[in-house]
Each structure stands twice: as structure tokens, then as C-alpha cells.
User: Which sequence fits this backbone?
């Protein structure tokens, strides 16, 4: 079945460091891909998404490009801030199942001042 | 937009008891989803509704679990004869159309079965 694999955490970075969180997927169809973020004490929020190959999603300085050839959707940010400390989840939605998001296990990011 | 509201925030129960959770979605959203999240894992899909119709159920949703959305507004998730393995965070989300659109999540109900 469809699945999402993302890098294990936790990830600890200093402020202004470059961030990459790897995400790869397995899907039979042509999924849409998402990054959701969960800040401490808050619900999950959509960070960015891409619905077809080569699309780039971006928001709040974060970017991810839908790479069909490598089945990847890596999250990047050029300069992280303390306020980016959160748990990041990669997810996919298969075309055939409009109600079902499949999530990775999440990667906890801690940014130190 | 008051967000997705879930009640209660925490529930502690003894094994074998029944529990019910409530979710109030964003008012104009016609889709409502239930997910379950255990420690160190991502959310796992349980079921979703479009208006009052339950359109999809995961194999995770055993016959002890039942969800309703009687008037296409709020939803309830009931777990009968709870087991320790049911301990998890139960998340509700809503959206205007499908999962390809933005899902708005509530803060969840943390269930502990003793």
C-alpha cells in the first residue's frame, strides 16, 4: 500500500542554519504531497503542498519540490528560526481516496538561539 | 473562523468502559475526518464524512468504534469496551472539499485507558 517515510528525528539546529528534512513516498497512483507542522500545544497545520510532478510548494520560507523520478518531497529552509521548532509531518493523498491522508512518523525540529 | 473544536481534551477511563468524543468542525466545511495518533507516530486515518454520509472507513476502525455526523455538522466518535491499545490522541479535521485541499485539525482528545 501507499506509504511515507521521513527522516528520523530529533533534529537540532542553531538559528540561521540550513534545514533539510527528507521525505520519500510509495504510491500506486499520482498522489498529492503535503507537509504539515505541529507547533507545541497546537493542532496540525498545513505548511505547503504540491499536487503534481515538478511542482514546488512554498510557505513561510519553507520549500519542497515534488520529484516523481526519486519519489521524494524533501522540506528545506535556508535559515531557520527558534520559532520554527515544531514537529513536521510529510503526507500524501492518493487520487483514489479523497478522504485519506497517509502521514509519515514526523520529525521533531529544535532550533537553538 | 473559530477553528475545529474537540471535547474533551483529555479522557481517562477504565478498560471495558465506553467513551464518546465530540468534534465541532469549521461551520462551512462539509468534510470531516477522524484520525488516531500514538506517541512517536504520524496520524492514522480512521474515517471521514461528507455532510452526514460516512464515505470511507479504515480497517483500523474495528466494530467497537462508531462515528456519526447526524446533521452534517458536529461529529461523535464512540469507542465501546475500551482496551489499553485504544490509548491514543484522537484528532478531528475538517475541510471544504477533499483531502487534496487544506485540512484544518483540532487539538485532539487524549484518551488513556487504564
Assistant:
Amino acid at each position: 500500500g501507499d506509504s511515507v517515510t521521513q527522516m528520523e528525528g530529533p533534529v537540532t539546529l542553531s538559528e540561521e542554519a540550513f534545514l533539510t528534512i527528507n521525505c520519500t513516498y510509495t504510491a500506486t497512483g499520482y498522489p498529492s504531497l503535503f507537509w504539515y507542522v505541529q507547533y507545541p500545544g497546537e493542532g496540525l497545520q498545513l505548511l505547503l503542498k504540491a499536487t503534481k510532478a515538478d511542482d514546488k510548494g512554498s510557505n513561510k520560507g519553507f520549500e519542497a519540490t515534488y520529484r516523481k523520478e526519486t519519489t521524494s518531497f524533501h522540506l528545506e529552509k535556508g535559515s531557520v528560526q527558534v520559532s520554527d521548532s515544531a514537529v513536521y509531518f510529510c503526507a500524501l493523498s492518493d487520487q483514489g481516496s479523497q478522504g485519506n491522508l497517509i502521514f509519515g512518523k514526523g520529525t521533531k525540529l529544535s532550533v537553538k538561539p | 473562523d473559530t477553528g475545529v473544536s474537540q471535547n474533551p481534551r483529555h479522557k481517562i477511563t477504565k478498560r471495558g468502559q465506553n467513551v464518546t468524543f465530540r468534534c465541532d468542525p469549521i461551520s462551512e466545511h462539509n468534510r470531516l475526518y477522524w484520525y488516531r495518533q500514538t506517541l512517536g507516530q504520524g496520524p492514522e486515518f480512521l474515517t471521514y464524512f461528507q455532510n452526514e454520509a460516512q464515505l470511507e472507513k479504515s480497517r483500523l476502525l474495528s466494530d467497537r468504534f462508531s462515528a456519526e455526523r447526524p446533521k452534517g455538522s458536529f461529529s461523535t466518535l464512540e469507542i465501546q469496551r475500551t482496551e489499553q491499545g485504544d490509548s491514543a490522541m484522537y484528532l478531528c479535521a475538517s475541510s471544504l472539499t477533499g483531502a487534496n485541499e487544506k485540512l484544518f485539525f483540532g487539538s485532539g482528545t487524549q484518551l488513556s485507558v487504564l
